[in-house]
Design brief:
The structure is a single chain. 70% of the residues lie in helices and 0% in strands. By secondary structure, it is an all-alpha fold. It has one domain. The chain is globular, with a radius of gyration of 19 Å. The model has no long low-confidence stretch (mean pLDDT 87).
Amino acid sequence: MLRMKWYTLILQGIPETVATAAVVFALLRLGLKWRLIVPIGVAQGLAAYLVRMLPISFGVHTVLLMFVLMGLVRLATGADMVSIIRAVLIVNIVIPVLELLGTGSLFRLLGVTYADVADKWYWPLLGWPHVIALYALAFGLDRRNRRRKEVPEHAADDAGGSHS
């Protein structure tokens, strides 16, 4: 059973779930509406804290939390459920990849293993590389979305010249 310590929730869990919500908003092209993203992320983090206390098999908590995130985003935005499902699935594929690259690389760099740091107070800080990468991804996707909106779509016959 995965038990999250309260300081892990504060130092890593909530920042990660806020970043996750931000990536979902960016994937849905909703803009980074922090007044919605932060409460969704905090609620998701608290849900993760509670779900990880349940006596359920490893991995089931992830599926439950995906449904929680889908519901929270739907309630807050009214976005299309199929799009929300797609965005949540994408972000749940991206997270372990970023964790592997970020935290795995940091472990190799520091010469430590999970067992070495699992019960240390600074353990949550070692999860920050992928959290920062999630925020960067959210900001990058949002920037791309805004640029696409700024580019005016011209008609096929609009060459910028006179129409004589």
